[in-house]
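REQUEST FORM: STRUCTURE PREDICTION
Request ID: SP-0412
Submitted by: Lab K.M.
Chain count: 1
Length (residues): 270
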Amino acid sequence: MPELPEVEVTRRGIEKRVGGARLDRVILRTPALRYPIPAGLARTLAGRPLVEAKRRGKYLLLDLDGGHLLVHLGMSGSLRFVAPGTAPEKHDHADFVFGGVVLRLTDPRRFGALLWLEGDPLAHPLIAKLGIEPLTRAFTADWLHAALRGKSVAIKPAIMDAGLVVGVGNIYAAESLFDAGIDPRRAAGRVSLARLEKLVPAVKHTLQAAIRAGGSTLRDFCNTEGGMGDFQTRHKVYDRAGETCVVCGTPIKLIRQGQRSTCFCPKCQR
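STATUS: Completed
RESULT:
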């Protein structure tokens, strides 16, 4: 699933290419993704300027002068610019035409979303329940220590809970915990403030490094120019089960936590 870095890379690409441009036409090729696409959406959007491309968690919010188009990329979606006249393929479900520029939504598994929001987009039920943004100054070790107090759930699924902290998916949770030297199985409420003072900067650094690298491309993700991310070449533990730890040489261990795989170094992470 595209996580915070991949969505932020997409947001920046959209802002750079078509920020301020007029959305002339929308072509929809499916009536629904994860949710039904609102009836008449193409007519509603046509003619509106893109005031700003925003992000909240893993959601894109495209401010289109009078409302916001909420976009979620689902499990394997992407938004990329294509040349006008480029024939759509099987999983290309929507085109957004800005003059001579076409922004195409691809979603092979149809787990994404296209919704039109009027009023305050942050009040929408999908957005209102989201937790703190990890790249803000408000995300501190003190805040996280208070938020985790009394929680028996393991620290890795705790920081992946979008109701607590947004956008830290499996890849970046695993990498951040490795950098902080914390065992992903440790009960969240028992992680000391001193250790969280290592974890919070690790989360911020990992996410920022991934954004600079264009995100992680494991299967389908591409940026708005069709290029791949590069952060997957820098993973220290994620998807490296059985390989040697880059720090101590111990084989990376693979376990299951809920429905997720977790890779970690049993020596470096305590």
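NOTES: Helices lie at 4-18, 41-45, 125-128, 141-148, 155-160, 170-180, 193-212.
Reviewed by: T.R.
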